[in-house]
């Protein structure tokens, strides 16, 4: 006889500026366990909007929990995630007693509307929190979890909206990329390492490394000296509700500095995105100075992990870190 399921999944319909979004709500299941139809893989016909709202009489516990986790998905991606990481994370948290909502924002997955960038999802996040609180009135506070540009979206949201419902932030490998930052990271963490290797020079002198490789290095060095514009036209056009037209990385830094709740920062060792973020914190100017040591920030490094924590061991580590952080952020 199989073990009783420890989570219950249901569809949550979300309206955002006249468009329908799809949310999947994972909640702790009753100890006796009823049949868990939502254990079927995400993306099945049963998990579309036609699935309807969560059954208010289903009997799963955790409904009175004052805190939950909103999993914002980076793009281009939808609520399941690479190797089903978001589905598995949400269900692991629900089994541990933490309800979790993951959403497709406008233009992604099963949501309506045109595709948009991470700088433009403030309304989607707010609409998801509104719908969740209507469905579960006991929900008071939410921790936002995001990977890559979803972590960036979370920081932009708290900067622009100052939403008191946000109790904490889980930021995994936040995205701060510009063309210059990528070039600097590549020069620092790839090209300089190669220049220190005797094998590289042997290949160069023997002709096995062509001049094209040298030209590529010189090009990266030139790009790395460039600076990101503080306000470009494209950034201005995508400014959030607050009308802040500064470069998105500056807005992120302000969001991280001003946010009053605890922050869990998870960084992969084998990931250029994480390296760029650390470089930005060290060399990004006054806006970024001291952010890694700000009060309430807890940093966790996974030295061998890749960008999406693609092994079972890395995924389980992230699940444990997240569950513990959300419990610590729970309202009294």
TrEMBL record:
Residues 39-53 have a biased composition (Basic and acidic residues). Residues 85-275 form the Serine aminopeptidase S33 domain. Keywords: Hydrolase. One of its GO terms (molecular function) is hydrolase activity. It comes from the Bacteria. The keyword Hydrolase applies. Residues 35-59 are annotated as: Disordered. It holds the Pfam family Hydrolase_4. NCBIfam families: hydr1_PEP (TIGR03100). This is Hydrolase 1, exosortase A system-associated.
């Amino acid at each position: 006889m199989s073990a009783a399921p420890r989570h219950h999944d249901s569809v949550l319909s979300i309206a955002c500026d006249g468009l329908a979004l799809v949310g999947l709500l994972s909640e702790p299941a009753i100890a006796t366990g009823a049949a868990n139809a939502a254990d079927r893989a995400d993306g099945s016909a049963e998990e579309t909007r036609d699935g309807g709202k969560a059954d208010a009489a289903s009997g799963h516990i955790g409904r009175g929990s004052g805190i939950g986790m909103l999993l914002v998905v980076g793009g281009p991606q939808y609520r399941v995630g690479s190797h089903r990481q978001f589905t598995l994370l949400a269900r692991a948290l629900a089994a541990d007693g933490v309800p979790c909502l993951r959403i497709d924002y406008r233009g992604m997955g099963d949501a309506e509307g045109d595709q948009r960038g991470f700088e433009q999802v403030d309304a989607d996040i707010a609409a998801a929190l509104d719908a969740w609180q209507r469905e579960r009135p006991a929900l008071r506070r939410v921790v936002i979890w995001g990977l890559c540009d979803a972590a960036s979206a979370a920081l932009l949201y708290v900067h622009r909206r100052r939403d008191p419902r946000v109790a904490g932030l889980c930021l995994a490998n936040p995205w701060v990329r510009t063309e210059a930052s990528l070039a600097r990271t590549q020069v620092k963490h790839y090209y300089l390492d190669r220049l220190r290797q005797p094998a590289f020079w042997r290949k160069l002198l023997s002709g096995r490394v062509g001049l094209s490789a040298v030209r590529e290095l010189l090009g990266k060095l030139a790009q790395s000296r460039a600076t990101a514009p503080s306000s470009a036209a494209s950034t201005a056009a995508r400014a959030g509700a607050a009308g802040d037209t500064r470069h998105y990385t500056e807005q992120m830094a302000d969001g991280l500095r001003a946010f009053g709740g605890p922050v869990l920062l998870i960084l992969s060792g084998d990931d250029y995105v994480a390296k760029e973020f650390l470089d930005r914190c060290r060399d990004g100017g006054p806006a970024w100075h001291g952010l890694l040591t700000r009060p309430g920030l807890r940093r966790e490094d996974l030295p061998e992990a890749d960008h999406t924590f693609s092994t079972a061991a890395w995924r389980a580590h992230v699940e444990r870190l997240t569950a513990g952080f959300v419990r610590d952020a729970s309202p009294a």
